């Protein structure tokens, strides 16, 4: 490789490295923003029940419209509902049957077991 070719290739690689570095930095910032978003949503989810109880009727209505595409109340109680696509995974996670049928999940054979009473 001749000197002019080497300089051209070197400059091209330096520019390419700068582009890769810029993309990496943007990706890192996005990850940090996403982590902050997840932490914020998690904190809101932990406090959702308390916040809902403290909300005004108008705020509760707005929240219901935000989360549900269909919500049927009978005598003031939820009869059926369908969550909007964004919230469906959060609401469906309770329908997954895992653990020990509503009891404490543990590897200890004496917890939730008849062995404890023998």
Low-confidence stretches: none
N-to-C terminal Cα separation, in Å? 85 Å
Beta strands, count: 2
Structural class: mainly alpha
Biggest sheet record = 2 strands, antiparallel
Q: State which percent range the strand residues make up.
A: 5-15%
Could you spell the SSE succession in H and E letters?
HHEEH
Round the mean pLDDT to the nearest integer and report it.
Answer: 78
Radius of gyration, CA atoms, in whole angstroms: 27 Å
Proportion in helices = 55-70%
- What is the topology, as strand order, of the major beta sheet? 1-2
- How many domains, in number, for the residues? 1
What is the count of helical runs? 3
Overall shape: it is elongated
Describe the structure.
Strands 1-2 form a two-stranded antiparallel sheet. Strand 1 (68-74) and strand 2 (77-83) form a beta hairpin. The protein starts with a helix and ends in a 26-residue tail after the last helix. The protein has one domain (3-91). The protein has helices at residues 3-54, 57-67, 88-92; strands at 68-74, 77-83. 58% of the residues lie in helices and 12% in strands. It is mainly alpha-helical and 118 residues long. The longest helix is centred in the N-terminal third of the chain and has 52 residues, at 3-54.
């Amino acid at each position: 490789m001749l000197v002019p070719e080497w300089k051209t290739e070197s400059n091209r690689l330096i520019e390419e490295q700068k582009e890769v570095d810029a993309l990496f930095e943007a990706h890192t910032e996005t990850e940090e923003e996403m982590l902050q978003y997840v932490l914020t949503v998690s904190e809101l989810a932990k406090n959702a029940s308390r916040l809902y109880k403290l909300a005004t009727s108008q705020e509760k209505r707005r929240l219901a419209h935000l989360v549900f595409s269909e919500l049927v109340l009978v005598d003031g109680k939820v009869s059926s509902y369908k969550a909007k696509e964004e919230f469906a995974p959060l609401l469906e996670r309770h329908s997954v049957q895992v653990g020990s049928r509503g009891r404490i999940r543990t590897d200890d054979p004496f917890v939730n077991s008849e062995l404890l009473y023998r």
